[in-house]
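Aggregate trends can hide what the representation actually does to any particular protein. The sequence in question and its structure tokens are set out directly beneath this paragraph.
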Amino acid sequence: MNGIDIFEKGCFIIAEAGVNHNGKVELAYRLIDAAKEAGADAVKFQTFKAEKVVSSVASKATYQKKNTENTEESQLEMIKKLELKFKDFKALKEYCDKKSITFLSTPFDHESVDVLEPLVPVYKVASGELINIPLLKYIASKGKPMIISTGMARIGEVEEALIAIDEVNPNIEKILLHCTTNYPCPYKEVNLRAMLTLREAFKLPVGYSDHTLGIEVPIAAVALGAKVIEKHFTLDRNLPGPDHKASLEPSELKAMVKAIRNIERALGDGIKKPNESEIEIMKVARKSLVAGKYMKEGHILTEKDLEIKRPGTGIQPKDIDKVVGLKINRDIKKDEVITWNMIKFQ
């Protein structure tokens, strides 16, 4: 897979494993299996060294305190337990290849970018890194497509990030994901129309990174034109860790993928025309001109002679003025559908 595949084909569905492996590579393998079984296009992790991402004085976010048992530990202590070794990502990539699902991971520092360089076809930028201009420029220097989440951002900050990327390489393919950074995100904070604002403002493909409970909002995003959907998932919402409770379980992820594919098919090509199945239904559901009484050959048709009834296999009602005043070339029974070969034109 390359960037062209993401931006030009159907909606690209990313199953966001994130740190829901709880620092255990065995659990990461099981998450890959679940993402593949659900029909996702990609499974995504997070690549970082905790000490390079979080300072020792950083406290947990409110949702992290709520979703983890140890409220006294620092954010650094929590994230350290969710860290995988750099070598693990190579093994996970190889396993994804074996399972025929795209491997992705979000880097949070320069070293992680380098680790992922031979492993990912596209770089995913987390919402929290949107203002990290040095990191954005370093990722851009690799020349690969970038999927950029925009949670917490004002539109001016999105513009600053894009300008920084373009200063390094203006030819990089980019897609912007609307996102609300809250776990779980209440419906009133989704503001899905902001995704359309991003598309209009920057003339770039857009998508949606979802943190709501359930699957309705990502499905709606696809109907609005999302090219990428990212959704957190877990093997079990009751597992310990900050993100499990706002994640889908495997059966729900599978239902979301199925619904998105159905919506894509339902969107169609936009051309207003009857479908093949409707051609036959037209004959039953539409109406034609029919004889209101028995009429003999040579009778001159009047409007009173004609009724409009099903089926739709005869002359269309819109053509009634064209047949009034003409002779019929054979006897016609009451309720018989009138067709053009019954009309005498000379």
